[in-house]
Amino acid sequence: MLSSCKKDTVKINQDISNAQLDSISLWVAAAKNEGNELVDRKLNIEKAYSATKALGNDSIRTKQLSQVSLTYLKLPDSLMFRKVNSETLQLARKTNDSVTLAETHWDLGTFFRNRAIADSAYHHFVEAQKIYSALQNQDYAGRMWYNMALVQFNIKDYTGSEINTVKAIGLLKPLENNLEIYRNYNHVGNITRNLKEYDRALQYFNVALEHLNKLDETQGLEQELLNNIGFTYQKQDQHQKAVSYFTQVLKTKGLKRQNTKLYAISLDNLASSQLKLDDTLNI
Q1: How confident is the model at residue 11 (pLDDT cuts 50, 70, 90)?
Q2: Where are the alpha helices (DSSP H) in the chain?
Q3: Which end of the chain is more exposed for a tag (fewer CB within 10 A), N or C?
Q4: Contacts for 43 with CB less than 8 Å, ≥ 6 apart
Q5: What local confidence, expressed as pLDDT, does residue 108 receive?
Q6: How far apart are CA 130 and CA 152, in angstroms?
Q7: Count of beta carbons in the 10 Å neighbourhood of residue 36
Q8: Band of pLDDT at residue 226, cut at 50, 70 and 90
Q9: Phi and psi angles of residue 282, each rounded to the nearest 5 degrees, phi first
Q10: What does the alpha-carbon distance between residue 222 and residue 65 come to, in Å, rounded to a whole number?
Q11: What is the pTM of this model?
Q12: Burial (0-12, 13-18, 19+ Cβ within 10 Å), 75
């Protein structure tokens, strides 16, 4: 009787592949864990990256490289991020992997925005947005409009930023993604305040608060929003109202430790409004 080992060989190869993927996932997870020492995190992501080279399937390798690339972005390790991101981009094009291609552009947009290279950041967010729109992924397409709006805000293109934020809201509202909707209304509130349209800004901040209240966990975002409202009242010289909002922020338990920057900003804002009210006791 003749027998074939072909089926067994396929199973062995599949087992090896699964073992490789499991190892890569574990290394990536360890590298992302901010509780680990930075040296250990870098060592783990190096292991993951090396392991991707042994993956024979380009489609599988593309997916794994995308995770490695994102991890290098978050570490951050700019040199390795650009290297792995470039490899991912090439493989995603080769394998016609639209999802990974969009992710790669998203990561690049974030990389350039973090370095205040506005034109490159905007370009890559546009590319990602086009792909997500073609894939009918309204959630991520909306997030790309928001990312573009952030880039425009940073270069003081407030009109363009508002237009793209409204586009983002239009895509996200039907999905009831309250966290992202909150971010967009908060952002357009900041835009209109910078345009000195204070009443509109307060309207947008209040809508943002409505969506924030729909979340089970606000992740400390409520304090940021209350500070924004207080700052808007301060700009209107309504300092008594401003003080009440800054005071609410500063009463948040553990804020000084958990978000030192916001604590300092709110404290400074409170002092400014108290000074305008001639309340100099604690200035």
Answers
A1: very low
A2: 6-32, 38-52, 58-74, 78-94, 98-114, 118-134, 138-154, 158-172, 178-194, 198-212, 221-235, 239-250, 255-258, 260-276
A3: N
A4: none
A5: 97
A6: 18
A7: 15
A8: very high
A9: -110, 15
A10: 36
A11: 0.87
A12: middle
Q: What is the rounded CA–CA span in Å between residue 225 and residue 242?
A: 13
Shortest CA distance to 70 belongs to which of 18, 106, 26, 24? 106
Assigned token pair, 257: 């430790």
Query: What amino acid is encoded at 127 in this protein?
Result: E
The length of the chain, given as a count of residues: 283
- φ/ψ of 84, rounded to 5, equals -70, -35
Q: Is 233 helix (H, G, I), strand (E, B) or coil?
A: helix
Cα-based angle 36, 38, 43 (whole degrees, multiple of 5): 95
Query: Cα–Cα distance between 26 and 5 in angstroms, integer?
Result: 32
Place of tokens 């990602």: 128
Q: Residue type for 262, please? A: L
pLDDT value at residue 2: 42
Query: Which position has the token pair 């009831």?
Result: 176
Q: What is the pLDDT of residue 175?
A: 95
Q: Count Cα atoms within 13 angstroms, Cβ side, for 274.
A: 15
Long-range CB contacts (within 8 A, 24+) of 39-43:
41/75, 42/75, 42/77
Long-range contacts formed by 229-233: CB under 8 A, 24+ apart: 229/202, 229/205, 230/266, 230/269, 230/273, 231/193, 231/269, 232/189, 232/193, 232/198, 232/201, 232/202, 232/205, 233/202
Q: How confident is the model at residue 3 (pLDDT cuts 50, 70, 90)?
A: very low
Contact 224, 262 (CB under 8 A): yes
Measured CA to CA, the distance from residue 65 to residue 85 in angstroms comes to 8
The candidate with the shortest Cα–Cα distance to 74, out of 111, 127, 35, 40, is 111
Query: With bands split at pLDDT 50, 70 and 90, how would you rate the model's confidence at 220?
Result: confident
